[in-house]
Structures are given as C-alpha cells and as structure tokens.
Amino acid sequence: MPTGRQEAALWKRAAASYVDCFLCAHRCHVAPGKRGICQVRENVDGALATLVYGRVIARHVDPIEKKPFFHFLPGSRSYSVAAVGCNFRCGFCQNWQISQWPRTAAGAMPGETLAPEEIVSAAHRYQCASISYTYTEPTVFFEYARDIGILARQAGLKNSFVTNGFMTPEALAEMAGWLDAANVDLKAWQDSFYRKICKARLEPVKETIRRMHEMGIWVEVTTLLVPGQNDDAGDLKGIAEFLASISPDLPWHVSRYHPDFEMREPPATPLETLERAVEIGRGAGLRYVYGGNVGTMEDTVCPSCRATVITRLGFSVVERNLRGAACGKCGAALPLIIA
Fold first, then answer.
1. What are phi and psi of 300, to 5 degrees?
2. Residues 136, 95: contact at Cβ < 8 Å?
3. Which H/E stretch holds residue 284?
4. Are 119 and 148 in contact (CB under 8 A)?
5. Over the stretch 171-229, which tens digit does the pLDDT of each residue have?
6. Which residues pair with 300 in a beta bridge?
7. Which of 269, 281, 322, 331 has the most beta carbons within 10 angstroms of its beta carbon?
8. Tens digit of pLDDT for each residue in 186-200?
9. 22 lies in the same domain as 157
10. What's CA 177's distance to the chain center, in Å?
C-alpha cells in the first residue's frame, strides 16, 4: 500500500505550475514546492500530494459518546483514528500536539503505517459499530478516510467525522454514500472569532451543517464555550436559532472549555454558563441540548412525555428506556440511530 506521500484528491492545475486545492474552504493556491494551510498537502512538480495517507498518529477504541455523539449508535464503541494536521489554528486546541504538528516540527509525517483494510479489521476485532475520524481534522486526511470508509461500509460498519466543518461542497459530494454521521464544531456565531482565534471563517461551517443535513448525514453540533469570547447570550441564541431552523431535532452540545495550547486565559467555563446555554438552546426550539465536559446535563429526554430515555454517566450509557428508536414510556418516535 502506498503511504505517506501520494497524489491527493480534489485539486486542479493552475498557471505557472501552481495547483488549486478545493478540499477545504481555504481553497489554497499552492506554489511549486509549497504546502497548503493544512501543511499536509504539497505541490510536488505541479501536482498536489497528500503527505499523510496511511500514517496513523492515534488510534483508540472509544465510546461513541466521547466524540460526542448522543443520538448516533448510543452505547456503542467506535474505532477512532487520526493523522497529523489541521486546516485551523485554534489557540485553545486540546489536541494541538498532533493537530499542529506539521507547523511546529520539521521532517517526515509521523505515525504507524496502516492500510485501510487493517483499520477495518481492527474495528471488527474490537467489536466496534463504527469508525470515527477524529482527534485532528479528518478533512485533511480525506483520501485515507475515504478509502477506509468505503471498506467499512462494505463490512457493515458505519463512519463518522468529528470535524470543524470547513470542507467544500465538492468534498461533501465525495463523502456521499460512505459518511454516516458528523459532529461539527460550530465554534462561535461571530465571523471575527473565526478569523482571530481559528484563522478561518464562519459561513462555510454553517453551509456544511446545512448541506450535511440535506444529504442525510446525521449531524450533531458542538460549541466549546470560551468565557468572554463566544458565550454572549445573543450569540448563543443566534447559534441555537440557526440550528433549530435546520431541524429542532439536531442535537447541540455546549461544552466546557479549559485553558490549553496558546490560550492560558481565561479560566475554565463556569457551570452556570453551560446551564444558561442549555436553556437558551431549548428556548430557541431545540429539543436536545446537552452540557459537555462536566458530567451532568447529558441525559436524553423524550420531548413528548419528558421521560428520561437514555441515562448517561460520563461517556457511558447506564440505562435505557427505549423500544427500538422510540420512547419506552409513551412510544413516541425519537431521532436516534440505533446500533
């Protein structure tokens, strides 16, 4: 199997031996011998190469709730893989050692050499229901994720992305047929936050959430609440109303930030901020709003009869009150994808 450097997908030749990458919304115009913003796609003699195919920097068996997914295969295990790299540069990144590695270190891309077949085989061996492309930004190792994902589907496994949502419509079209679910970070409601903190833009992320939902990809959304940066009540209402306009059944995870990487201030998000965000989300019409990284506010409640249908403790499902994908008490259908 070719690993490391090989020809990339989703690019075209440009003048003067430049190449145009249209994998993500940065749409980099890459000079000969240079790399795109992600630092893992390089113009090699007028052709775009991915540098991370088959180079696995992290792989673990995780509960699907850790991603977090609360409505997609609840209670199951997911074989989780990553390569180095990211097309964002978030100052608070909690996996910065691997997501930002290509910007902070020189030399060949690190990682185990593993063929797509080996990933699928390992997922079966560990009795996982899905494969998650996570920890870093899976868009930047798209070719590897695609090849694994197609084989996984053929083997009866599902596929999920944990993503910043900054891919292009062209990339999304290539995911149709093998990507089942995505947890998309909607990091803020202000484009200025995206430009300053993430070195990116807001609108492509909103468009990705819309398109994924229209494509039938199961979508959950996470917003990490950074005190004084993206937790304004009006902004939270803006996010919630946007998500509710797509579907009131779209789960929204509002998660606790803690200082990391280049952001040592402010201190961790107060619990009261998460509680307020949950109430704002519900007030905007969202039926499923969860507090994350605090160990509370994580149970799923039937909106029809208010019975708790899934009780969670940390990343574990400890009790179910379901009949298939319906409430075990009143029988109302629920937006759940059951393993």
1. -95, 130
2. yes
3. none
4. yes
5. 999 999 999 999 999 999 999 999 999 999 999 999 999 999 999 999 999 999 999 99
6. 310
7. 281
8. 999 999 999 999 999
9. no
10. 18
CATH at 160: 3.20.20.70
Shared domain for 16 and 71, answered yes or no, is no
For CA atoms 123, 214, 225, 300, the dihedral sign is negative
- Looking at residue 238, its amino acid is G
Q: Give the CA count within 13 Å in the CB-facing half-sphere of 2.
A: 10
* Among candidate residues 15, 5, 28, the one with its CA nearest the CA of residue 168: 28
Phi first, then psi: what are they for 245, rounded to 5°? Answer: -70, -25
Question: What pLDDT digit, counting tens, does each position of 130-180 carry?
Answer: 999 999 999 999 999 999 999 999 999 999 999 999 999 999 999 999 999
If asked whether residues 47 and 62 sit together in one domain, one would say no
End-to-end CA distance of the chain: 32
Query: The dihedral of CA 295, 296, 302, 303: what is its sign?
Result: negative
Helix axis angle, 142-154 to 116-125, nearest 10°:
50
